[in-house]
Amino acid sequence: MAGVGVGMGMGGARVIAINHRHHRTLIPISQSNLQFNLPTIHSRRSSMSASAATPSTAINNPILQQNTASTASPSGCWPEFASNISGEWDGYGADFTIDGHPIELPENVVPDAYREWEVKVFDWQTQCPTLAQQDTSSAMYKLIKLLPTVGCEADAATRYTVEERTIGGTNNMVSAFAYQSSGSYTAVWSTKKPGVLELEHCLIDPRDKESRVRIVQIVGVEEKGKLVLKNIRVFVEQWYGPFRNGDQLGGCAIRDSAFATTQALDVSNVLGVWKRSNSIACFQDSPNSVLQELIPVDGVENSVREKEHLVLLPKNLWTSIKEIENGEKTCCEVGWLLENGRAITSTCIFSRNAELKEIITSSETT
Predict the structure, then answer these.
(1) Do β-strands 176-179 and 291-293 pair in parallel, antiparallel, or remain unpaired?
(2) Are the beta carbons of 15 and 26 closer than 8 angstroms?
(3) Model confidence over 260-285: pLDDT tens digits?
(4) Contact (CB, 8 A) for 310 and 322
(5) Residues contacting residue 126 through CB under 8 Å, at least 6 positions apart
(6) 3-class state of residue 201 by DSSP
(7) Per residue in 230-267, pLDDT tens?
(8) Which pairs count as long-range contacts for 186-195, CB under 8 Å and 24+ apart, including other chains?
């Protein structure tokens, strides 16, 4: 069984990526009339194993080390969230500029065969094994980037980097974390670089709980608390089985392909007046509560989305950072257009001093 992706490289060079059960091959193509069958989607089990050790590494950052979260018995939807987020999430990841242009992978990781074919490489193949404990409000995940390869799948398992992150507990590494039962979450991470935050927005497709995107806004905190977008990172992932700590690749179970050079979102599809139903987690009045459930709010509100500040991305995604209420607040938003007239969004609201006030997730319709 194979998955096929077609993209446009730099300078107009067209490429095709073919994912077979035992190998992945990338070759140039000259015709666009391709036909192929997608793999069958396997149904996800309602419960998953949860028996992994606590991550052994943590970022050596005094700011992060101060952020601890209670491991007391969880309440609300945490057990359901833990079940839905746990497992092996495989897919692809890519970096983008603040204008939405894909960034090539470092030259030292690209095989010679790609250069011989004059193929530009923009996408990492990734793994994100994730485990959340249902009986304590804690979780961990690994972000694994795999070296690009031409040939057998065994070579594709060569890891380039592995980054572990912990949520909750004594090794907590997150500044704020808001979650929903579906497995969606929004996290604010401090980084090794002073004055730089990572706002990670994980959105689950409500039509398919095995499909998700993670959009990371890398934000600089400038003088007087002004927030400025520095970079964008996108991961498109599929759940393919219970947690196994990244022991094996999803192989043909991955129902997606490289996406960085595919068509960006059409801006006309997200502009105008939208009706949104919100769920909110407030952090301004709860400085000691790092982990919070997103609570639905009664009623529907209207919002207007304008072209200014929007950064358009592939996979019907967008991101924006803008000041609101005469500069008193900064709104850091990402969105996923599921279909015409229907979208989901995640938003972090900061004060003028770059202090997190609240996190909002919304289901939007026109």
Answers:
(1) parallel
(2) yes
(3) 999 999 999 999 999 999 999 999 87
(4) no
(5) 90, 91, 92, 93, 143, 144, 145, 146, 235, 237
(6) strand
(7) 999 999 999 999 999 998 776 555 667 899 999 999 99
(8) 186/346, 186/348, 186/359, 186/361, 188/348, 188/356, 189/165, 190/61, 190/63, 190/64, 190/67, 191/61, 192/59, 192/60, 192/61, 195/220, 195/221, 195/222
Distance, in Å, from the CA atom of 91 to the CA atom of 211, rounded to the nearest integer, reads: 10
User: Considering the chain, what percentage of its residues have pLDDT values greater than 90?
Assistant: 66
- Smallest CA-to-CA distance from 258 within 33, 102, 41, 34 is with 102
Q: What is the largest CA-CA distance in the chain?
A: 59
Q: Could you tell me the pLDDT band of residue 224, with boundaries at 50, 70 and 90?
A: confident
Task: Give pLDDT tens digits for 137-154.
Answer: 999 999 999 998 876 555
Q: Is pTM beyond 0.85 here?
A: no
Type of residue at 91: G
CA angle at residue 14 from 255 to 249, to 5 degrees?
A: 25
Structure confidence at residue 287 as a pLDDT band (50, 70, 90):
low
CATH superfamily of 73-365: Calycin beta-barrel core domain (2.40.128.20)
How far CA 357 is from CA of 265, 282, 329, in Å, comes to 29, 6, 9
Classify burial at 326, counting beta carbons within 10 Å of its beta carbon; exposed 0-12, middle 13-18, buried 19 or more. Answer: exposed
Count the residues in the chain.
366
Query: Can you tell me the mean pLDDT for 59-72?
Result: 41
Residue 346, token pair as written in the block: 């995640």
- The single-letter DSSP state of residue 102 is B
Residue 344 near residue 363, CB atoms below 8 Å: yes
Beta bridge partners of 94: 234
Find residue 291's DSSP bridge partners. 177
Question: How far is it, in rounded angstroms, from Cα 67 to Cα 285?
Answer: 16
Boundaries of every domain in the chain: 73-365
